[in-house]
């Protein structure tokens, strides 16, 4: 079976006390509009999403275009879901250099239980794969940390956070009938290249 791991689009930044579950920003909604066509070549038979709003709002147009429901799986939530505020990764470097240095070394933020996070992500992926038929393509809408953990577990990377994962990027995994995983593509962004923050700098 084929598993597409799609990172959510660009969200708003939340304010302290609002929690780490913001809606998509205006730029994020523009990114999402590209997804139904960007994923048209894939015969998606199921759509799964993290419960966080930025992931669900990214998944909904893709599911609607195919007449599918969005299945929510809490285990695909990002490591930040219980934190008091959401800060886009691009801003952490300026606002919290200590945490940025930790993440640059491949670790999750200090407030996160890495082992527990990795275990729940692995269980979620295992269950999605087990429920699929060999010919199925399942799209999972999730987060950069989740996608990095999956790649780490398959490839055995030294660092937990090894890959840049852009907004609305597609990481493609193939699973054999025996459950063996192959990474076919990481962070594909051709459908939204011009809308990514790093490509809009003056």
Automatic annotation (TrEMBL):
Record-linked CDD domains: HP_PGM_like
GO molecular function (one): phosphatase activity
Organism: Mycobacterium shimoidei
Entries under Pfam families matching the protein: His_Phos_1
Annotated GO CC locations: cytoplasm
Protein name: Phosphoglycerate kinase
């Amino acid at each position: 079976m084929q598993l597409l791991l799609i990172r959510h689009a660009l969200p708003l930044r939340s304010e302290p006390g609002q929690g780490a579950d913001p809606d998509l920003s205006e730029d994020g909604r523009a990114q999402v509009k590209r997804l139904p066509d960007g994923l048209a070549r894939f015969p998606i038979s199921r759509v799964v999403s993290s419960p966080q709003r930025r992931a669900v709002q990214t998944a909904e147009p893709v599911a609607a275009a195919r007449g599918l429901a969005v299945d929510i799986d809490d285990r695909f939530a990002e490591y930040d879901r219980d934190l008091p505020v959401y800060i886009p990764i691009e801003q952490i470097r300026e606002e919290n250099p200590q945490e940025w240095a930790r993440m640059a070394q491949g670790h999750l933020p200090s407030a996160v239980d890495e082992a527990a996070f990795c275990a729940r992500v692995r269980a979620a992926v295992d269950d999605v794969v087990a429920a699929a038929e060999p010919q199925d393509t399942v799209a999972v809408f999730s987060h950069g940390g989740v996608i990095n953990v999956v790649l780490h577990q398959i490839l055995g990377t030294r660092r937990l956070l090894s890959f840049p994962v852009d907004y609305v990027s597609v990481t493609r995994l193939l699973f054999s009938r025996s459950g063996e995983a192959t990474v076919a593509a990481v962070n594909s962004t051709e459908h939204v290249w011009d809308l990514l923050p790093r490509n809009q700098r003056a």
